Input
Amino acid sequence: MSAILTTILALIEQLVPANTSAALIEKIIAVLIQLIPVIVQEYKDLLPIVQNIITALKSDPSTTAQQLATLEELEVQYDADFEAAAAAAQAEDAGPATT
Output
């Protein structure tokens, strides 16, 4: 699964700087919305790629105001999800307190 996600994200990274249109950006955002929860839960090492894609889309002049708002929401979502996953992992590693 990780290889598939890496391939999909690499393909998206190649598409982003190549004359994107608002319609293509909308499709990329839809894919990211589906992938981010999976990536946060299972494949945290792919988050930098997602961050790079979002940054590139945000700086693309074809990105509409609505798409920009959605991308900003995605950033907030994956930051919060990642922090929650990290806190859960840290709590799990700490284990139950013994007396």
Remarks:
- The helical segments are 2-15, 22-42, 47-59, 65-94.
- The first helix runs from residue 2 to 15.
- The chain has a mean pLDDT of 86.
